């Protein structure tokens, strides 16, 4: 590559950073802002768009390591970001233009921090800075190995198979020369490399697969859900878990799906059609009694920080406190819809004990009719007496929490 081209790309990247920087700690919808910013650049092609996206997300992931440099020495900041960017291959011309005098990126964060400290004078790069320090009170284990490394890596793509003839999916993936791994205890889950564009496959268009992180898939697997029941998915959103639940319950079972945002349920309608599921109903007036109610509650999303690194810097302790109030409110509203003997599953994609254990404990104290059930299977997570937490490093997934509560009377 002509050195002038790489220098221009670096200048443009730094201009994007300058435009985004004032919004980083303030905008929960930063990914949309990034998408719109890149879409406005009519002169750049799709390969460059991918490069800038990769650099921007790496910058957000490693924000505390590059923030001080962006003011004092932006060119070195851009070099550090290019070096750290996980998807820039050693052969990438952009990387080669700036990082040829640095070695290949080591595997661990500790080694990365040590190398950068030795190269960039006046700065000490610390691994623990890559999560907000206040979060240690919410989840001390997130600051330890292997979770800290996993939380700062780029997420793989997980899909859930929802077809009888899996070879239709495997043949297409092989044709694209994608390799994948399966989860031994969860044969419906396949893990593909981060850059696999799964949404552009026939398998996806024909409803043979759904994109769903293994962490999200395992939530329902922690509970003893017998086939054939009538369930309510009370926070269904775009319906990732509604679809999974509908398959789990089978033809004799049924899922009613609702959400405070009715418009998002349209996405679920399309996905259910694509998956040829006829046992999912979208409703804004759920019934009075169900065999089970799933509350996949709105949360800080700290379990998804590796895919949404901006949230590490946007979420504050006050944000979490506000979520805990909403979570308890939703549980309290939905609890009467569980039949005696039925199940209430509370789930979040948060690693914060305040949003998880503490919300369930407060709920149980106010609702003596409900008792915690031991996890049917923790799938590698940790059961705390009320619910199961799976942290990202354990199985290369998003983090989640799930508690199963049974109503006695
Ligand atoms: C974590 S997301 C659900 C994700 C979804 N279950 C899935 O697996 O794809 C939480 C959802 O809760 C919804 N929500 C927020 N407040 C709510 C409330 N008071 N009642 C019902 N849903 C609510 C949000 O609109 C959001 O779609």
Task: Give an overview in words.
There is one protein chain. The protein has 409 residues and is of the alpha/beta class. It has 3 domains: 3-130, no CATH class; 157-212, Sun protein, domain 3 (Alpha-Beta Plaits), CATH 3.30.70.1170; 216-407, Rossmann fold. 41% of the residues lie in helices and 16% in strands. The protein has helices spanning 3-20, 30-39, 46-61, 63-72, 74-84, 93-99, 109-119, 147-151, 167-175, 202-205, 214-221, 240-249, 265-274, 310-314, 317-334, 357-366, 392-395; strands at residues 157-161, 181-183, 186-192, 209-211, 230-233, 254-257, 280-282, 290-296, 338-348, 370-373, 382-383, 388-390, 400-407. Strands 5, 6, 7, 8, 9, 10, 11, 12 and 13 form a 9-stranded mixed sheet that branches. A hairpin with a 4-residue loop joins strand 11 and strand 12. Helix 1 packs across helix 3 (46-61) and helix 15 packs parallel to helix 16. The longest helix is centred in the N-terminal third of the chain and has 18 residues, at 3-20. The chain is globular. The model has no long low-confidence stretch (mean pLDDT 95). Bound molecules: S-adenosylmethionine. S-adenosylmethionine (SAM) binds next to helix 12. Its EC number is 2.1.1.176. S-adenosyl-L-methionine binds at residues 259, 296. It comes from Lacunisphaera limnophila.
- Give me the count of strands: 13
Oligomeric assembly: single chain
CATH class division of the largest domain: Alpha Beta
Task: Name the CATH architecture of the largest domain.
Answer: 3-Layer(aba) Sandwich
Helix content: 40-55%
Low-confidence stretches: none
How many domain regions? 3
Tell me the structural class: alpha/beta
**Which molecules other than protein and nucleic acid are bound?**
S-adenosylmethionine
Order of helices and strands: HHHHHHHHEHEEHEHEHEHEEHHEHEEEHE
Question: Major sheet, described briefly?
Answer: 9 strands, mixed
Structural shape:
globular
* Corresponding CATH superfamily of the largest domain: Vaccinia Virus protein VP39
CATH fold description of the largest domain: Rossmann fold
Taking Cα atoms only, what radius of gyration do you get, to the nearest Å? 23 Å
Estimated share of beta-strand residues:
15-25%
Distance between the termini: 71 Å
Number of helices: 17
Overall average residue pLDDT: 95
């Amino acid at each position: 590559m002509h050195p002038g081209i790489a220098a221009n790309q670096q200048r443009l990247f730094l201009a994007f950073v300058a435009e985004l920087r004032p919004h980083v700690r303030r905008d929960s919808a930063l990914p949309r802002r990034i998408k719109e910013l890149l879409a406005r650049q009519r002169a750049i092609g799709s390969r460059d768009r991918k490069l800038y996206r990769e650099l921007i997300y790496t910058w957000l992931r490693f924000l505390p390591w590059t923030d001080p440099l962006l003011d004092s020495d932006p060119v070195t900041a851009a070099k550090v970001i290019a070096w750290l960017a996980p998807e820039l291959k050693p052969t990438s011309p952009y990387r080669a233009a700036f990082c040829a005098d640095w070695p290949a990126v080591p595997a661990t964060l500790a080694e990365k921090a040590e190398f950068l400290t030795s190269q960039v004078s006046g700065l000490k790069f610390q691994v623990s800075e890559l999560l907000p320090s206040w979060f240690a009170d919410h989840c001390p284990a997130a600051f330890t190995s292997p979770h800290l490394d996993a939380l700062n890596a780029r997420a793989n793509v997980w899909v859930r198979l929802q077809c009888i003839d899996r070879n239709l999916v495997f043949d297409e993936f092989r044709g694209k020369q994608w390799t994948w791994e399966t989860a031994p205890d969860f044969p419906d889950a396949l893990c593909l490399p981060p850059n696999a564009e799964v949404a552009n496959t026939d398998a996806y268009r024909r409803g043979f697969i759904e994109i769903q992180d293994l962490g999200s898939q395992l939530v329902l697997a922690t509970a003893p859900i017998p086939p054939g029941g009538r369930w309510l998915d009370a926070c269904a959103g775009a319906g990732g878990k509604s679809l999974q639940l509908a398959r789990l319950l089978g033809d004799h079972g049924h899922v009613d799906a609702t959400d405070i945002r009715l418009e998002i349920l349209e996405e679920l309608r399309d996905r259910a059609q694509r998956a040829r599921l006829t046992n999912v109903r979208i409703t804004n007036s759920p019934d009075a009694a169900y065999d089970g109610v799933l509350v996949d509650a709105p949360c800080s999303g700290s379990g998804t920080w590796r895919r949404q690194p901006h949230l590490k810097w946007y979420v504050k302790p006050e944000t979490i406190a506000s979520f805990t109030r909403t979570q308890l409110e939703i549980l309290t509203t939905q609890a009467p819809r569980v039949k005696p003997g039925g199940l209430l599953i509370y789930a979040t994609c948060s690693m914060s004990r305040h949003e998880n254990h503490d919300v369930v404990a407060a709920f149980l104290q106010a609702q003596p009719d409900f008792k915690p059930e031991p996890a049917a299977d923790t799938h590698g997570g940790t059961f705390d007496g009320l619910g199961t937490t799976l942290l990202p490093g354990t199985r290369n997934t998003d983090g989640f929490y799930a508690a199963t509560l049974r109503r006695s009377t």
